Amino acid sequence: MSIRQQFTQWWMALTMCLWPAAVLANDTELVFGVVPQESSSKLAEQWSPLLHRLSVQLERPIRFATAPDIPTFERRLWEGHYDIAYMNPYHYTVFSEEPGYRAVAFEATKLMRGIVVVPETHAAQTLQGLEGETVVFPAPAAFAATILVRAELDRLGVPYTPRYVSSHQSVYLNVQKGFAAAGGGIERTYNAAIEAGLTGTRVLWRSKGYIPHAFAVHPDLPTDDVLKVQAVLTSLHETEEGKRSLDLANLEALAAAKDSDWDEVRALEISSLLAEQEL
Q: Alpha helix (H) ranges present in 103-239?
């Protein structure tokens, strides 16, 4: 077991010990699903402090959950496995229709951009320089990292070979190790990879900005609980402990969201994930 995994297990055990009696007495657990853009162990480490704050404020246990890959996460959203979920903008437009997730919060001051990463030594200076190359992506329905990047390559008429890997981290490692000439990602996960030691790559292209990920709740969650979840998430930045939990999850201050905030993404008329993935 790696040091990171040991730390994650220790932290999760510690937060259980720190839960007040009122939390532990309420055995109605909520499951909080996070899109697997990075490894499960890293996500658990990043998100556990935020979920602990949410648990304390709601006075009920909240369990961190993710999935081994993005298609599995999509299937679990479709099946309603998560009471609360952090999902990409395109996922939200799909799963707000069925099973009916509803947005409660988002990073109002941030825009999400797709990026194309290449080795530092690659000769390309524009996307046209990727003609005939292999380009890796984290999953077919990754909004910025795949959909926006592929749409731009198609718009420019650049022929390329797409290949899907398991996560954003895998994209950057494939590019770093020379297994692909380029890869689609987003600024947040790319910056995190650099902080973790990624070298030898550069950003070739950035898309325009779109509304970022949604914090959304399952339609079966009672209205009182929905309002409490929204109130806690949107007030985290008001305390030092809450700010630290946001920082660890690589999040900025959260604001209240409404369903229509994602209408710009709906207007892109992206082909249905449900049809493509046969969910």
A: 149-156, 168-176, 187-195, 223-233
* CA pair distance 171, 262, nearest whole angstrom: 26
Q: What is the pLDDT along the chain (279 residues), one digit of tens a residue?
A: 444 444 444 444 444 444 444 444 456 899 999 999 888 999 999 999 999 999 999 999 999 999 999 899 999 999 999 999 999 999 999 999 999 999 999 999 999 999 999 999 999 999 999 999 999 999 998 999 999 999 999 999 999 999 999 899 999 999 999 999 999 999 999 999 999 999 999 999 999 999 999 999 999 999 999 999 999 999 999 999 999 999 999 999 999 999 999 999 999 988 644 444 444
- 215 CA to centre of own chain: 10
Residues 6+ positions from 254 with CB-CB distance below 8 Å: 105, 106, 107, 108, 215, 233, 234, 236, 237, 246
Residue 110 is encoded by which pair of tokens? 């941030």
Tell me the CA distances in angstroms from 85 to 35, 95, 163, 181, 256, one per residue in order.
Answer: 8, 11, 27, 33, 15
Nearest to 70 by CA among 143, 124, 19: 143
